[in-house]
Design brief:
Blueprint (H helix, E strand, L loop, with lengths): L3 E6 L5 E6 L5 H26 L4 H36 L3 H14 L1
Antiparallel strand pairs: 1-2
Helix pairs in contact: 1-2, 2-3
């Protein structure tokens, strides 16, 4: 998302320039990256299970757990994006960004 500059009015009867860019809360980003790292580690374990000819039912169970972890991470990203990026896009009148996000969510679900 490119930065967008616009006037921002306040109740105190003054205006100033306000710029919205694509920004993510560092704590939220760290949490998401940690969740992703855990899922990657879990997936590597599944890979070793397959390489070691472990029980197929157990492999499928572990794959299901990885899939659920990734799905939950996606839901968190959707929520974070909606509350921050999409809210700013709507405020700024950037309907193209909203439509792009809707398409991405449709692919995710």
């Amino acid at each position: 998302m490119e930065e967008q500059e616009h006037d921002h009015e306040h109740e105190q009867d003054h205006q100033h320039k306000h710029v919205h860019g694509h920004y993510h809360d560092p704590a939220e980003k760290k949490r998401q990256l940690n969740r992703l790292a855990k899922a990657v580690g879990h997936l590597r374990h599944v890979q070793s299970m397959i390489e070691n000819d472990e029980d197929c039912a157990e492999v499928l169970t572990q794959l299901s757990a990885v899939n659920a972890a990734l799905k939950n991470l996606g839901k968190e990203i959707i929520n974070e994006h909606m509350t921050h990026c999409i809210a700013h896009a709507i405020e700024d009148g950037n309907l193209e960004l909203v439509e792009e996000f809707q398409k991405a969510v449709q692919k995710f679900i």
